[in-house]
Task: inverse folding
């Protein structure tokens, strides 16, 4: 039986946290603020890794340790921030690193021990998401919009927080993250938005950077070319899609893989990306008979495009937000629809849902999110403007 979403949901808002100071101080403030959520995240992932891969948490952190030196070599200040998070939350550094490299751990090709134990590794679906950028002809009110539905495990819903990081001389950031993560999706005071989607596919096992480190490094940049340079010059460990939008009215999508990148530009000011390769299938995957890991992405992308085309008729930001929320609430293919709901046919530990539907107005600096599925929740207007403070660009 296919589930139907509830018509209304309990009133809920995402926690908002602001941190500043040195990397270590920022981390401690962060860890102290999210201590309950971070411990809940550790409990969930211990169960999830045990269910999908037969790994104890000790083995997960042992695998995560592979990324400590590469991250320290590339961004030592982010290791300091993670160390501060661990101190503030009362956990170990490798616990925090594992939360930041959860995707890399599960996609790690070094499953030799599991196979030796007689277990067949379970192919983990890519982290779901549907991202968009709309401006110019696609935006009836003339604003530049960027956002996404972030679809991931329902079990971490209560660990999601909104964080504002004041870190001069780098731009001030606003991001939606799982507690303890140093980077994911968001926007900065330079007017750059970063939205991301998992792509799937296994490449060689040469060590690369975790996605949270890459994404944070992108948002730490003050102009679009430097942000692109991060994506083009770093080697991430797993494939991921990156949609960059800037308030001047420009967007570009990069399908980044350890082996190479593909890219796309908007059509008439609108760009939507899901969890399959849209710019071109990498030759390594094509040779192996590539098939999209998230087949529902083939439905979600055109449905989002169809819904977002209504923006052309918008008379102002209030109407635009309603149009975007309605578009991102589409239920064709429920439960694995654009607005994703848990599938009761799966065990609870594997339930997926839209954790956050986000919308950044890069023209005004207003940032809106839903604390869960957008079909039954109104946008939460964050208390910060992207361009507030001495490091904003207004």
Result:
């Amino acid at each position: 039986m296919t589930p139907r979403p509830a018509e209304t949901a309990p009133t809920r808002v995402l926690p908002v946290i602001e941190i500043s100071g040195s990397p270590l101080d920022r981390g401690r403030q962060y860890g102290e603020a999210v201590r309950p959520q971070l411990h809940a995240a550790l409990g969930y992932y211990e169960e999830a890794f045990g269910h999908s891969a037969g790994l104890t948490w000790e083995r997960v952190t042992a695998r995560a340790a592979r990324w400590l030196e590469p991250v320290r070599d590339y961004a030592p200040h982010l290791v300091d921030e993670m160390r501060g998070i661990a101190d503030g939350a009362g956990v170990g550094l490798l616990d925090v690193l594992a939360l930041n490299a959860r995707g890399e751990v599960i996609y790690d090709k070094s499953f030799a021990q599991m196979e030796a134990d007689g277990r067949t590794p379970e192919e983990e679906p890519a982290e779901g998401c549907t991202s968009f950028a709309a401006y110019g002809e696609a935006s009836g009110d003339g604003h530049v919009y960027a956002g996404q539905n972030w679809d991931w495990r329902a079990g971490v819903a209560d660990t999601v927080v909104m964080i504002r990081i004041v870190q001069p001389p780098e731009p001030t950031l606003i991001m939606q993250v799982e507690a303890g993560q140093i980077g994911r999706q968001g926007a900065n005071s330079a007017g750059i938005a970063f939205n991301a989607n998992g792509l799937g596919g296994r490449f060689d096992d040469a060590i690369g950077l975790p996605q949270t480190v890459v994404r944070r490094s992108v948002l730490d940049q003050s102009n679009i070319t430097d942000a692109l340079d991060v994506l083009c010059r770093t080697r991430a460990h797993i494939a991921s899609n990156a949609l960059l939008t800037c308030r001047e009215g420009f967007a570009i999508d990069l399908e980044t893989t350890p082996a190479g990148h593909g890219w796309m530009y908007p059509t008439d000011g609108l760009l939507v990306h899901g969890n399959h390769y849209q710019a071109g299938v990498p030759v390594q995957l094509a040779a192996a008979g590539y098939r999209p890991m998230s087949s529902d992405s083939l439905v979600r992308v055109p449905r989002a495009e169809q819904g977002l085309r209504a923006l052309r008729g918008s008379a102002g930001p209030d109407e635009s937000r309603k149009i975007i929320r309605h578009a991102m609430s589409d239920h064709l293919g429920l439960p694995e629809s654009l607005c994703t709901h848990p599938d009761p046919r799966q065990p609870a530990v594997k339930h997926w849902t839209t954790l956050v539907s986000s919308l950044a107005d890069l023209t005004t600096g207003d940032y809106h999110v839903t604390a869960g599925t957008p079909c039954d929740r109104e946008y939460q207007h964050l208390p910060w403007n992207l361009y507030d403070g001495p490091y904003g660009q207004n």
